Structures are given as structure tokens and as C-alpha cells.
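pinned: reference chain
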Amino acid sequence: MKHIGIVGVNPPGAALCYEEISKISLLKHDVALEISINSLPFDLYKTAMMALDWRKIADLILASIKKLALLGVEIIIIPANTVHFAIEDIKKNSPVPVLSILNTTINWCIEQNYSSVVVLGTKQTMRGELYTKILSDNAIMEVTITESLQDDVHRLIMEYIIPGNKNFDTLLNSILEAVKKIKCDAVILACTELPLVMDSNNVGKPIVDTTRLLAIEAVKYSAILTDDIDEHINTDMNLRHN
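pinned: its C-alpha cells
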């Protein structure tokens, strides 16, 4: 079993991914994985993301990876979508192998034979077209949503979910009603905090949970995921464990 290192960009996403790894590894085997987390202050990432400074983002993440490497981690995951604009730079300079949330997400979409998807995430992720090329390269159409809806999703993430402000029911319901009207095969939750408030039930269509997919891949890499657990996870992808 390999020692997993989590680079925490923001606390909710890192905590949720940690929880998912633990659930998956213990699902049918009484086995707990060794996991280490390093998380720099989110404000450092937020400032760099607002400036679209992906070099700075890479530097911040690599600083965390180097600290985790000293603890003996053998694989790195980064449960945050937006920072993956810097993933190639990160992978090139990391002393430890890094799993990409982009690859795990696109592989799932291919397995499910999705031909069109909506991407929900931060404004940088949506307007910067983080997923556009990899989706297009695999013959999957990204359905564009309005800038107004993009702004609402971004605000839900940055002003409510990450800070822990629970007074978002009106905003969330407005977003959900708008998404339900969009014609697509599935909705990619391209923000690792969105699964905290969205699932296939309230979205009204299949969701692609990037947080859980990354957790699954990390456990697979640790070589303890058996075929029957794979089957259970595949049937449960759109309905998260409570």
C-alpha cells in the first residue's frame, strides 16, 4: 500500500477527499491507508487564482509537495480543479508522482459514454475553459452556460461553501433550477466543494463528482481496490455516500 499525500488548496475540498479515500478503502476491507495532508493558507491560492498566476499556483503546490515528500508520500493528489491549469508544470517539477483530476474525470466521462456535459466550478475554471480541450479531444461537447449562471456558481463556492456560510439556499436553488433546464448528458462538478451541496437528486441529471473520482484513483493506485469494490463504486457514482 502506497502512502498518499494530499495537497490541500482549501479545507472543505481537502477534507472531503480525505473522507472519501477513507470510506472507499474501508468499504469492503478493514484497511486504512496512510495519508498525509499539507495545506497552505487558502488566501495565497485565492490571490494567485484571481490574478491567473498559474506559475505562482505551481510554486505553492510544489512547496506543499516537497514537505509531503519528506514524510515519505509515494503519490500526490490535489483535490482542487482550478489549480490544474498548472498541472503540467507541477508534474514536471514534482519529486513525487502526481495524479491529475482532469484525467480521472475525463476517463469517467468516456466510460459512461457521455457526449455532452456542463462544467460547474469557479469562474476561472469555467471561463478559462479548463476542461474544454480535454473534452473536445475525446469528442465530448462542453455545453456553455450563461455568464450570469457562472457568476452565481462562483459566488456559491467562494462566498458560501468555502467560508462555511450556510445561508445559501436561495442561491443554490436558483442555480439548480437553471441547470435542470440545460440539455446535456451529465454535469461535471468541477469544484471539489460542490459535492457538499449537489448530487444527482437535486441536479436532476447524472453528476460527475471530481472529488470522489480522484479519491477512487488514489485508492486504486494504492493497490487495494478489488473488482467487486469497483463494481459497487461504479453503480454508486451518482449517489454519494452519507
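why pinned: DSSP finds twelve helices and seven strands in the chain. Residues 224-242 have pLDDT under 50 and may be disordered.
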